Amino acid sequence: MSLLTLLPFIVLIGAMFLMTRSAKKKQQQAVEMRNQMQPGSGIRTIGGMYATVKEVNEDTVLVDAGPGVELLFAKNAIGAVLTDDEYNRIVHGVEHDLKSDADIVPDDASSLTETDDSAAPADDKAVDLGKKDAAEEPADEAAEAKPDAEPKKTDGDSEAK
To answer: Could you read off the pLDDT of 34-86 as tens digits, one per residue?
Structure first.
């Protein structure tokens, strides 16, 4: 057999080797993360439940999911061990801000669009946008319209749909 016929098999074996190696690395990182759990750590289960570790055993973890609610999970069911800041932000809504002296951005843009009174227009009339309903047109304009004039063109609005 020539080298050209063996090349696809070599590439396939190399790809399989790289995939299994990255999977083993991810498994090893997950095992290390689960071994770092200590009582008081915040966790997220693979089902998406957030809780606090109460006790760590060989293959199981006892977690406190709320007042008076203790649950026993397998260590493999722990999806992530969270930092204290991340756990408090997600569960309790507490934002730990390292830049406490920085300017606070408002939740809405109303304070950004406020203007001085001197820049406000002098009259408080409604702004005419150029569109009028047929009922709002004065009678003298309707009388001035020529019956043989071409119909007005619209901006693509069509009543027939």
So the answer is: 888 889 889 999 999 999 999 999 889 999 988 889 999 999 899 888 888 88
- Angstrom CA distances, 22 to 15, 16, 17, 25, 28, stand at 11, 10, 9, 5, 10
| Distance (Å, whole) CA 161 – CA 66 | 57
Which tokens belong to 97? Answer: 């801000």
Q: What is the pLDDT of residues 4-47, one digit of tens each?
A: 888 888 999 999 988 888 888 888 888 888 888 889 889 999 99
Three-state SS across the chain? CCHHHHHHHHHHHHHHHHHHHHHHHHHHHHHHHHHCCCCCCEEEECCCCEEEEEEECCCEEEEEEECCEEEEEEHHHEEEEECHHHHHHHHHCCCCCCCCCCCCCCCCCHHHHCCCHHHCCCCCCCCCCCCCCHHHCCHHHHHHCCCCCCCCCCCCCCCCC
